[in-house]
């Protein structure tokens, strides 16, 4: 009996050793951080419908600068790209997804603000955007106040919708949708006069082949949107993600990713912000 037990234990040790070495090989150079435990998965919240930011492509792959930032950070945390599980986190669902532990961190055009900081933590900022308007190409809107009385689409749970109500145009007729792609459809079918959110997101839509020449950005800077990486309150990941973000800027990857992403859209993005400094 004892012998059998010992044999089983030895076999188990052998299996564990094999697993460990296999994972080590898989992990390549990122294995040294140790926190990824080889085949262990990490779940990252992103957007699925924002071209240039976070987009699920028809073939099931993901593109956009948030996706690239997420991959870089995950690698620095010790997770291979194939061990990242992306999950859609719509604007209104982000805090809950983190609080419930549905995702480990969120990279989804997620602005840092005091209200959200009561519920979740943020690493970053890693990007600075500004709220602007997307309008039909033959329209003109010179200032936020011009929107009073007009129909304006934005997304539930976003700072963009909040800003319209509290600051930019309290008299505008705000139409709220679950995602920006639904607002684009509303703009196209003239259900609304404008779509408002971050210029980074709007530039991505305007650059899409199917919308070229149809829509334009108004070119307003209605707010500062400091994008952070959301984590669960008290998470030990936050400090590690900050280290990863700093490295991404220092080694030139940040600039490369932003140039490649926003170059074709002709969007003049702001330089990389310093970690911990909000504008
Ligand atoms: N950055 C803004 C926000 O966090 C708008 C973009 C979004 O909804 O993801 O609310």
Write the layout of secondary structure elements.
Blueprint: H1 2-27, E1 42-46, E2 49-50, E3 54-56, E4 62-63, H2 65-76, E5 84-88, H3 94-99, E6 105-106, H4 114-117, E7 120-136, E8 151-155, H5 159-168, E9 173-177, H6 180-188, E10 194-198, H7 199-206, E11 215-217, E12 224-232, H8 237-250, H9 253-262
Parallel strand pairs: 1-5, 1-6, 8-9, 8-10
Antiparallel strand pairs: 2-3, 3-4, 6-12, 7-10, 7-11, 7-12
Helix pairs in contact: 2-8
This protein binds glutamic acid.
Summarize the structure.
The chain is α/β, with parallel strands linked by helices. Helices cover 35% and strands 23% of the residues. It is globular.
Alpha carbon gap, first and last residue? 69 Å
General shape: globular
Q: Percentage of helical residues?
A: 25-40%
Total count of strands: 12
Structural class of the helices, strands and pairings? alpha/beta
* CATH top level assignment of the largest domain: Alpha Beta
Tally of individual domains: 2
CATH topology of the largest domain: the name is D-Maltodextrin-Binding Protein, domain 2
Mean pLDDT score: 88
Bound molecules: glutamic acid
Sheet with the most strands, sense and barrel status: 9 strands, mixed
Q: Uncertain runs with pLDDT below 50, 5 residues or more?
A: 1-36
Q: Proportion of β residues? A: 15-25%
Q: How many helices does DSSP assign?
A: 9
CATH superfamily of the largest domain, by name, is Periplasmic binding protein-like II
Just name the CATH architecture of the largest domain.
3-Layer(aba) Sandwich
């Amino acid at each position: 009996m004892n012998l059998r037990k010992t044999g089983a234990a030895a076999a188990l040790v052998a299996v564990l050793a094999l697993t460990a070495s296999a994972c080590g090989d898989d992990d390549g150079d990122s294995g040294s951080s140790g926190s990824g435990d080889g085949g262990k998965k990490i779940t990252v919240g992103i957007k699925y419908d924002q071209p240039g930011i976070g987009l699920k492509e028809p073939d099931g792959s993901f593109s956009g600068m948030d996706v690239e930032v997420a991959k870089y950070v995950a690698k620095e945390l010790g997770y291979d790209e194939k061990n990242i599980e992306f999950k859609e986190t719509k604007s209104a669902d982000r805090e809950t997804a983190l609080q419930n532990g549905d995702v480990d961190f969120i990279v989804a055009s997620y602005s840092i603000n005091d209200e959200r900081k009561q519920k979740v933590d943020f690493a970053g900022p890693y990007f600075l955007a500004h709220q602007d308007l997307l309008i039909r190409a033959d329209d003109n809107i010179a200032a936020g106040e011009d929107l009073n009385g007009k129909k304006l689409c934005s997304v539930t749970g976003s700072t963009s919708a909040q800003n319209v109500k509290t600051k930019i145009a309290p008299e505008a007729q705000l139409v709220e949708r679950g995602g920006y792609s639904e607002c684009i459809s509303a703009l196209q079918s003239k259900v609304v006069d404008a779509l408002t959110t971050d210029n980074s997101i709007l530039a991505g839509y305007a650059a899409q082949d199917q919308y070229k020449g149809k829509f334009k950005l108004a070119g307003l800077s209605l707010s500062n949107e400091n994008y952070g990486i959301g984590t669960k309150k008290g998470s030990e990941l936050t400090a590690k993600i900050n280290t990863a973000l700093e490295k991404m800027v220092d080694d030139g990857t940040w600039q490369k990713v932003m140039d490649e992403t926003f170059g074709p859209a002709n969007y003049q993005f702001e330089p990389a912000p310093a970690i911990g400094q909000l504008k």
